Amino acid sequence: MINIIWLILLLAGVIMAVISAITAGSLEPLVQITDALFDSTTTAVDLAIGLIGLMALWLGMMKLAEESG
After folding, report:
1. Residues 49, 32: Cα–Cα separation, whole Å
2. CB half-sphere exposure, 22, CA atoms < 13 A
3. Using one digit for the tens of pLDDT, what is the confidence trace for 9-59?
4. I need a labelling partner for 46 at 20 to 30 A (CA). Which of 5, 23, 38, 68 fits?
């Protein structure tokens, strides 16, 4: 259910940006959406890589503790 709500909010934002671009006569709202999308993606990937590193470290420590008794 929450996925449907997020999808509706995302589509409403994109539709409003397109309407705003058409009425204003410029593509600035669409450029802002694209820039925000790529910035957010970069942030998400950086966060995921950091978390994967920490998880690998602690899983290795737990495996070592498990093997040592």
Report:
1. 26
2. 6
3. 999 988 988 888 888 888 887 888 889 999 999 999 999 999 999 999 999
4. 5
Q: Which pLDDT score, from 0 to 100, does residue 22 have?
A: 87
Q: Residue 26, SS3?
A: coil
Provide the CA 30 distance to its chain's centre, in angstroms: 18
- Closest among 56, 55, 10, 1 to 33, alpha carbons compared: 10
Q: Nearest 10 degrees: CA dihedral of 8, 13, 24, 38?
A: -140
Query: What are the tokens at 22?
Result: 């058409």
Domain count, the chain: 1
SS3 39: helix
Q: Residue 21 belongs to what domain range? A: 2-68
